[in-house]
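Handout, tutorial session.
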Amino acid sequence: MFTGIVQAKCEILAIEKKPGLNTLEVALPPALREGLEIGASVANNGVCLTVTQLADDRAFFDVMEETLAVTNLVGLRVGDKVNIERSLKFGTELGGHILSGHVHTQAQLVHLDISDSHYNMQLEVAEEWLKYIFYKGFIGINGCSLTVGEVKGNRFMLHLIPETLRLTNLEDYREGDWLNIEIDSQTQTIVDTVERVLAQRHLA
């Protein structure tokens, strides 16, 4: 489990591509390497990956074919930076909202509105996911716990503060790029439960 509070944006040092499998070598600062062991879970752009190998300055992660098919990890290149968060420990302050590290879909960045006073991103998502996205609700974007702004049609807004831009890779994205989306699990449970109850009443 994760909090959606990104700890660092870390550089991709190498990518080994095999049929149906990519191995990422990700640079990790000393603070994030401390106590890290093979088999540990680490979120990369919001995707829960398992540490398969450790070196002095990096960790290795295998990305399977299914993960490559549904996340933006497939488009990574050497030199890109990914949002990194180590798994939640008991007693850790929860500053964001609970994330599982299981990305549901991707959203395309369709518009950027940047000025001295604001940094706004408008994302477009497949219609099937809109029922889980609400104004002022929580959403995971590349592993970042964020609050949803205006929702209109199949698009929604994000209003980013300077601290979020400093700590994450969201500022690196341009119009046309794709970002990983994890919807809020509580919202999904409520919506699905209400739909099921209403369907049962309709059939009764």
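The second record follows below. Compare its token runs with those of the first.
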Amino acid sequence: MADRGFKCIDVLLNKIDCVLIRPPSVSQKSKSTKDDVLETKRIASLRIHIERVIGRLREFEMLKPHALVNCQLLCDTDEIITIVCGLINLQQPIIKQ
């Protein structure tokens, strides 16, 4: 999922069988259709939850913005993020039902 600004990564993601979800592009010359407006709202409502998860990630000292990471840990960064995501999954749900 990405903002409208990520226009050139479709090809790269398709190569690894990923689907990019982003709001429909808006041209200043044409008016958005009703379906485009509904799709944009649907995606925006889902992106709010993603931003909340990113906020939880940044609660961890190593993943805070501008955090200094020991260069010896760089090769383990993927595994560290996977563990942090697992810990976040054990927290209270983002979406209250």
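Points raised in discussion: The CA atoms of residues 61 and 71 lie 16 Å apart.
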